[in-house]
Amino acid sequence: MKSENHRNITLNLPESLLKEFKVFAAQRNQSMTAVATEAIRQIMQAPIDKDRLAARARMFDRMKNAKDRTNGRGITWTRDEIYER
């Protein structure tokens, strides 16, 4: 089997999490790279939450098609007026 090309990446993790991650990998006799690779594969292969995606689409649709709540007058103020001190 042909080996895949690999690329180095940089992660910025909290020190405490990094220590736990090192121990986690060592307990499984695996490298941190192997553990991270498997975790990312599992995340990428997880089924998409279709209900959540549908709810998000409905939310954006409602935002795009929101009713005019200004009684036809439009916005009568400016941003500067709101933030006057």
Primary descriptors:
single chain; 4 helices; mainly alpha
Could you give the topology of this structure?
Elements: H1 15-27, H2 32-45, H3 50-64, H4 79-82
Structure description:
This protein has helices spanning 15-27, 32-45, 50-64, 79-82. The protein has four helices and no strands. It has a domain at 15-67. It has 85 residues and is mainly alpha-helical.
Q: What's a quick, concise take on this entry?
A:
This protein has helices at 15-27, 32-45, 50-64, 79-82. With 85 residues, the chain is mainly alpha-helical.
Largest sheet: none
Q: What is the alpha-carbon Rg in Å?
A: 25 Å
Number of strands: 0
| Average pLDDT metric | 88
Helix/sheet category:
mainly alpha
Low-confidence stretches: none
Determine the strand fraction and express it as a percent band: under 5%
What is the percent of helical residues? 40-55%
Tally of separate helices: 4
Which word captures the global form?
elongated
First-last Cα distance: 69 Å
Oligomer: single chain
Order of helices and strands: HHHH
